[in-house]
Amino acid sequence: MRDPNNVFHLAIPARDLDETYDFYVTKLGCKLARRYADRITLDFFGDQVVCHLSDHFDRDVNMYPRHFGITFRDKRQFDNLYKLAKQRELPFFQDLSKRFQGMIEEHEMFFLRDPSNNLLEFKYYYDDRMMY
Predict the structure, then answer these.
(1) In terms of CB atoms within 10 Å, which of 13, 29, 38, 125 comes out highest?
(2) Which CATH class is domain 9-130?
(3) Going edge to edge, which strands form the sheet with 107-113?
(4) How close are the terminal C-alpha atoms of the chain, in Å?
(5) Which of 67, 43, 65, 46 is nearest to 116 (CA)?
(6) Over the stretch 42-85, which tens digit does the pLDDT of each residue have?
């Protein structure tokens, strides 16, 4: 079981740290924790994402099997992030949609694409028992 004092860590490739900073910090609102010549470390909604400078990033992407993101418990927070992404004209890989309509696992979701083609999924389940 997760201890709320612990933080999940994810490392992803970044082709350019300035554009990565602009996307995650300036536009998406994440907090910069550290910056070095070869990486930036972010507070990504309470967890740690490290963007490592790399020439090895996906040039052609699909949602599956590789993406990451946040599942919100609070619908207002989900809606507010969606509105922010629209207002700041963040690049959508897939706009707002619903999956599994009429089923207990029905949820809303959208995907953003960062400057290095990493896909970020944000979702909200109507029944929070379906979050895992």
Answers:
(1) 125
(2) alpha beta
(3) 68-72, 119-125, 107-113, 92-99
(4) 12
(5) 67
(6) 999 999 999 999 998 888 888 888 899 999 999 999 999 999 99
